[in-house]
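> call design_seq(struct)
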């Protein structure tokens, strides 16, 4: 079903071709950075397991309280596929910040919630949310490193 799209809210393929604006060369100009970022937040939030696995949660939270170097060291433990996704996601987010779509702090706050989740059904401990945000901020500010 080449060119089929998913019917909104039902998860069914409609068989309708994608609109020209998406298939054509102008797609990047027609879709705003904020729209793509919103879709990414929803995508990563809907995953059954976060991009940064629960086994690394404590190390990442601790790194958020320490330094950029500690944050970079923590992500070195990611599986290669997860690290690759994180690298490309961070590149997009850095570009969004540079274009003025959002501040680095806002991006760090929003994406820390969906990329780094407390293990199981546990609620984050006191201070974890701030340290998770700081961890993401360190990664966003690590141009060319991650």
């Amino acid at each position: 079903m080449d060119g089929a799209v998913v019917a909104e809210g039902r998860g069914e393929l409609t068989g309708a071709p994608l609109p020209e604006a998406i298939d054509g060369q102008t797609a990047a100009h027609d879709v705003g950075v904020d729209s793509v970022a919103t879709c990414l937040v929803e995508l990563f939030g809907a995953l059954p397991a976060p991009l940064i696995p629960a086994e690394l949660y404590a190390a990442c939270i601790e790194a958020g309280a320490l330094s950029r170097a500690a944050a970079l060291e923590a992500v070195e433990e990611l599986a290669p596929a997860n690290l690759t996704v994180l690298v490309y996601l961070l590149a997009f987010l850095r570009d969004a910040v540079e274009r003025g779509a959002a501040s680095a702090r806002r991006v760090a706050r929003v994406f820390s919630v969906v990329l780094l989740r407390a293990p199981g059904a546990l609620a984050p401990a006191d201070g974890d949310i701030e340290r998770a945000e700081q961890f993401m901020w360190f990664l966003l500010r690590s141009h060319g490193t991650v």
